[in-house]
Amino acid sequence: MSEYQRILEHPVLPVDPGETITYYWNGKPLEGKKGEALSSALIAAGVDAFGRNAHDHSPQGIFCANGQCSKCLVIADGRPVKSCMTPLRAGMKVSAADDLPELPETTQAPAMGAVPEFAFDALVIGAGPAGLSAAVELGRLGIATLLVDDKHEPGGKLVLQTHKFFGSVEDSQAGTRGIRIGRKLAEAVAADPHVTVWSDSTALYVYADRQVGILREGRYVLVRPRVILNAAGAREKSLVFPGNHLIGVYGAGAFQTLVNRDLVRPSSRLFIVGGGNVGLIAGYHAIQAGITVAGLAEALPQCGGYKVHADKLARLGVPIHTAHTVRSANGRERVESVTIARVDERFRPVPGTEKTYACDTLLVAVGLDPISEFTAQAQAAGIPVYAAGDAAEIAEASSAMFNGRIAGLAVARELGAKAEEVPASWQAKAELLKSHPGQVEPQVFPEGEEGVMPVIHCLQEIPCNPCATVCPTESIRMAGDPLLGLPRYDGRCIGCAKCVLICPGLAITLVDYRRDKANPIVTVPFEMSHVPLAVGDRVRGVDIDGNPLGEFEVAALQQNRDNLTRLVRLRVPAAVAKRVVAFRLQDEADTRPLPANVEAAGEAKACLCERVSADEVRRLIRAGVTDMNQIKAVTRAGMGACGGKSCETLIRSVFRQEGVDPGRITPGTRRPLFVEVPLGVLAGEDGQGRGE
Hints:
- By secondary structure, the protein is an alpha/beta fold.
- The two termini are about 40 Å apart.
- A hairpin with a 6-residue loop joins β31 and β32.
- The chain folds into four domains: about 100 residues, Ubiquitin-like (UB roll); about 180 residues, 3-Layer(bba) Sandwich (FAD/NAD(P)-binding domain), CATH 3.50.50.60; about 140 residues, no CATH class; about 90 residues, Arc Repressor Mutant, subunit A, CATH 1.10.10.
- α2 runs parallel beside α9 and α5 packs parallel to α6.
- The chain is built from 16 helices and 35 strands.
- Helix content is about 20%, strand content about 25%.
């Protein structure tokens, strides 16, 4: 087992060595952790090419780690499986999916096994923040509820979120890390006798006879619900650019799954495209895992995510290139560099502005598409259906939890339960939690140089107020709206540092003049355990934008065991003390472009499974084709193993580049089932080919 690929120390996550088992990759024995995703075990062992594409024989690696694409296909014990959704077992024989195994000869059809059937009042699809929150409400009201999720552990994206949540302490558990919130919700659901939880279970289709097919731990079952709540989440979007098929082009969710769920370090140096909250947070998570972040490109004039997230990256030494886009990922089989370019007001690359950065990974964080299939299928079948979380609208997890609670009450009322009306305050709070970031205001520093005081480096209205909630002297108040307003200090600080510890944006420092007015002590939050720090060390202090302010001595260190945030106390000259907000980790050499730009090799792909180029699709569009099904018939785009889940977004982006009105596009026909299922399983076999 390669220690380089395993994360052996993390500032937030416990490192559990787990039970080590032996499995085989192309006949070679390897070691992994029992029960971990097969894809994670392989990457931890240094294997990133899982097979070769049948069309051009180029190697394929992981992209989504969520069962939505097919790039991680391998042959495990003689069967083609998605390695990201397959738990590792001792003795498993795994080989690259270069060629699918030959079908066995048979003289008679296998006997059909019995398909178990179940009935529940409510079926909740997806055990993420919305689904769990809805299940809590349904269980509280005594509704017989089935909660299904395709992962081994409930929590959805909460399992990947090691950062502290925004929102309010009362409603969104603001200041608490996402992984802990997910655990609390899962425990509440598990303790409720009215809620049945099926993990490792994938909803496949809502049929016209009002039954739902579910692949439950490898066996096919049918469930008849009275009402369905679709909380299945979303799938990641990708982009059309040369090299988008290379190994090392990851979706942000896949990267966070490897780093934060499975504690596998898949990269040593990455570049990010996409400046929303997902991309900004993933960059921070990468640095926590000891990975260099060479830069981030965002096509808009400013990042769409929260400023405090962008500030965290800038302070650590990550350059953010706004009004830039990715031109190409470069390399023969794996990403070796990425080329970006500035864009004009119509988002067209400006020739001559290209810059190339060395990296082994390109992290694509350009948004999500709701998994809305189950909603449409239930409507067609005549089953009352609701949606919550990303399956209804892409928003923050704090909003998803609130909307899950609201949807849970709606489902209960649909079923005739005596559920209370949704309070108007809930609806208002749900809308606030979906709010886009407000305007950036000028920084206001507290006056005077006496005693101790917090300095607030939060300059943008976002739904967040835990600092005001925990202040024991009520000296931090929200200016304007109690949730969206900017926090302001006005009162008496006792130096407890609770505001510093709870702030999700790491945007509050404490300046203490009590012992030395000329060189006060500045307390800053720090969440990077892989960086050795000791009293007496000198660090490079920076302001809110990452500008250097000087080198300062570490005067003291304090670890908060519950919050898992380290407080670093720096001795800083009074002239700059209030401006110091953090200290830089990455060197400028880590983020410099290469001396010469790299020319892109190969074509951009609009369908990664079938290796259909964007130019093939472009030619059809220019010939007047606007029907996705016709493009599929001519090029095979959408006929690959992912069932068109990945390429629809890519093809739509080609339409957009060609200036086609989205209203003119005829969408493609989706495959009947949500994921691929062996026919034998539908006939009653289990996932290993065994009948009842």
